[in-house]
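Tokenised fold entry reproduced for absentees:

. . .
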Amino acid sequence: MTAAALHTTAADETRGLWLGVLGVAIFALTLPMTRLATGTAEAPQLSPWFVTFGRAALAGMLSVAYLAWAGWQRPRGNQWWLLLFTAAGTVVGFPLFLALGLRQVQAVHASVIMGLLPLITAVVAALAYRQRPSFGFWACAALGSALVAVYALLKAGSSLDAGLQMHWADGLLVLAVLSASLGYVSGARLTPVLGAERVICWVLVMSLPFTLPAALCTAPAQAVQASAWLGFGYVALFSMWLGFFAWYRGLALGGPVRVSQVQLIQPFLSMLSAVPLLGERLDATTLGFGLAVIATVFLGKRASTDTRGAAR
């Protein structure tokens, strides 16, 4: 490999990391904005089902306009299956499980569970790209999972009167993490061929026959607060659409295993934004466990990984 090629690769990785940071900064507001949109179990606003399907339907209609302007480069063959898999994770799985979970727990609490997302994404990417993380990498993954489980049990034990609702909500949030990581990696595999913008746009357009009728059927029958519509608008325009323009391109340029680790900052940004937006309190237990989970991800990133697997 020539010096110029090495320079280009290094430049691509750096650009990919910065695009990943931009995507994470956009995604970090997803938790508090979803909480604004759905409300709480005591004061519900928009239903989690409408938030899930409505945000995808709105982003899908914007995607139709974008593809009409940029050109309808159609996916081919097996690419349709990867798009379908990406849609299952990012259009349905992640937003639905997240919205259902945020009806029961605060956004600060959910941010700790979301702290596992970079590590889980790295594990899925290593398997998909046939890379071999070291024993230390897997040890950090297990430790991070254990920390999240202990945190969830502590919080559930402190709210026994609520019937351990947080336990079920934490399970939903873990499913949201798994859905997102699978959708991220499958979308990143298509980005070098279709481009980041076309990947998310085609995912949303092919989902429209399902998401648009579902959004109309679950639309609110009575008025909700303006803040709920504000939260819904954000997750539709930014979390479901524009954020993926930067995120998928960053994953493709820098490599999913590496770029996924910039999500280290996402729990902090989510926690910090939930305080002014929702008036939530950042307690020492949540902050401590959040830092511990992020530390395991940082250690997992530093663990050696054999990247001589399948080519990009």
Notes: Confidence is low (pLDDT under 50) at residues 1-8, 160-166, 307-312. Strands lie at 132-133, 305-306. The radius of gyration is 19 Å. The first helix runs from residue 3 to 28.
